[in-house]
Amino acid sequence: MFSRTSVLSVAALLALVFHPGCNNALNPLCGSSRPAPLIGSLAPSTMSFAQVQQGTLLIVNGSQFAPSSEVVINGKTLGATVISAQQLSVMITTSLISAPGSVKVTVHTPGGNSGDLGCSSGGDSSALLLTIN
């Protein structure tokens, strides 16, 4: 049979795993989940439309980027080059931006496969504006 201590340990683990609002920090089974990305700045944050016409590299700085993270510009998802967990890059061209103005830039990380364990996984960053003069 099981000892009282082992039953209590299993009960405590199950309470952590299946507790509503369980987060990755408390759940030992959430190791494979992906955190939501955080976006901090754009480089450059302003560019000319002539630069867009020539094609300009945009660097997105932040944290918690994963190999599957994508840059989203005005709702259009772009495959990004992951430089590190803190930087992504994408090429800005007229296929994305057709005129001067401001565009919203976010980062999206698709969810992992651990949602059934009460783990949050993936998500969208807040938005920053890229200004095109």
Supply the key terms:
alpha+beta, 4-stranded antiparallel beta sheet, 10 strands, 38% strand, 6-stranded mixed beta sheet, 133 residues, Immunoglobulin-like, single chain
Structure characterization notes:
This protein has 133 residues and is of the alpha+beta class. The chain has a single domain, classed as Immunoglobulins (Immunoglobulin-like), CATH 2.60.40.10. 16% of the residues lie in helices and 38% in strands. The chain is built from two helices and ten strands, in the order αββαββββββββ. The protein has helices spanning 4-18, 49-54, and strands spanning 38-43, 46-47, 56-63, 70-73, 76-79, 81-84, 87-92, 101-109, 123-124, 128-132. The strands form two sheets. Strands 2, 4, 5, 8, 9 and 10 form a six-stranded mixed beta sheet that branches. The protein has a four-stranded antiparallel beta sheet with strand order 1-3-7-6. β6 and β7 form a beta hairpin. Residues 11-26 have low confidence and may be disordered.
Helix content: 10-25%
Global geometry: elongated
Q: What structural class is derived from the secondary structure elements?
A: alpha+beta
Q: Provide a count of the helices.
A: 2
CATH homologous superfamily (4th level) name: Immunoglobulins
Mean pLDDT: 81
CATH class bucket: Mainly Beta
Q: How many strands appear in the DSSP assignment?
A: 10
Gap between N and C termini: 74 Å
Number of domains as seen in the coordinates: 1
- Proportion of residues in β-strands: 35-45%
CATH domain fold name: Immunoglobulin-like
Low-confidence stretches: 11-26
Cα-based radius of gyration, to the nearest Å:
20 Å
Query: Which CATH architecture?
Result: Sandwich
